[in-house]
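Forum: Protein Structure Q&A
Topic: Joint prediction for protein chains with partners

I've read a bunch of threads here and the consensus seems to be that you should model interacting components together rather than docking separate models afterwards. I'd like to see that in practice. Below is the full input, 430 residues plus whatever partners are listed. Could one of the regulars post the assembled result?
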Amino acid sequence: MTDLHDLAAKVIAEGEGPRLPTPSPVDRTTIRHWTEAMGDTNPRYQGPDAIAPPAMIQVWSMDGLNGRKRTRAPLDDLLDALDAAGYTGVVATNCEHIYHRPLVPGEELTSATRTTDMTGLKKTALGDGYFVTWQVTWYAQDEPVAEMIFRLLKFRPREERSPSEGRKPYPLRPAVNRDTEFFWEGARSGELRIQKCGDCGELRHPPGPVCPSCRSVKRTYAVAAGTGVVYSYVVHHNPPVPGRETPFVVAVVELPEGVRIVGNVVDCAPAEVEIGMPVRVTFREMDDELTLPLWTPGES
Amino acid sequence: MRTLEMAVGTTLPELVIPLTPTLIISTALATRDFTPVHHDVEIARAQGSQDIFLNILTTMGLMERFVTDWAGPEALIRGINVKLGVPAYAGDTLTFTGTVAERDGDIGTVDVRGTVSLGAHATGTVRFSL
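Posted by a regular:
Agreed with the consensus. Here's the joint model:
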């Protein structure tokens, strides 16, 4: 997915998912285990007229030790897309329960989930990330009996490094903007992303705002296989470049996907580089923030 | 008498929960939450936690208990809204404090704060009706 916000909007627009039966009905034994563990001696949860502790609502929906086959929800697509974009960290930030009426043992419930919001990109103490909010409604037949609004932060974990190990910032910075952000984000998560027209599907590189073929401004991207051949190259000897040791190779690499991309060829002597040479992409962390896609000799 | 005790500004008696491994594990399983970080210390540490820690379903349950322990069985909990903070690790102590924030007839709201040695574990409100 090109844009996480586009995907979020789509998932939110889908509204409430199907009502699925909870794995267990409201039952006395589960209530007793729960009140024992919580140390809750409230007499209202005991005896023939017992009600279930309202805070147990989510317990009735828990999948249990071996899980169960759960239908994939649109929310799963959004969380997976956040993982794929490098926001692999997860921390719950808010949980709200609303109880419309008490439940009694024997009641069978269904629950349905809707994704309600995604905000970001936000800077947080844990790292940059997106807040995703969803709402679960529990029903007894058609009557809504309880709701839960749950928010979590999907964040890009900071790399742990002691100050002495901290890398000096690499002196050269690429221009990262709304057109190119997906490319650099891809490099950080080990993907060579090529911009793709959201309408006609044509691939283009370097990224830009408008499709040169059909003039559409809808943008998405494809993940390249990461192979290519040297289409052309130069060996740079002079002048000196900050942060680089000369000589180094700057190549135009032709990808099997049909676009060409400029990058350094590394892990071999400049004299060994030749036109037509098969290369493979490799991702190198230049400092704490920048990852560059580079090219190493590869099998044909 | 209850009405007087439940006036806005009333402070609830503290609830102090020693977070033994038994408590963390038995509450996790009683809430049917089998995620290993709530019962397997080696897995919890491998994932960057200092120990096993309380699951969210238990935090919700303990906030409910904190209010009904004080308000008595006549009080029915209508809603709980929590901002989650630092983890509540085994070996720590979780202390709930609270004050009555709103009172409108039979409906009341308590501001609740659950604190551990690392700071605020859960901050929020519990709504009840009488």
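The mean pLDDT of chain B is 93.
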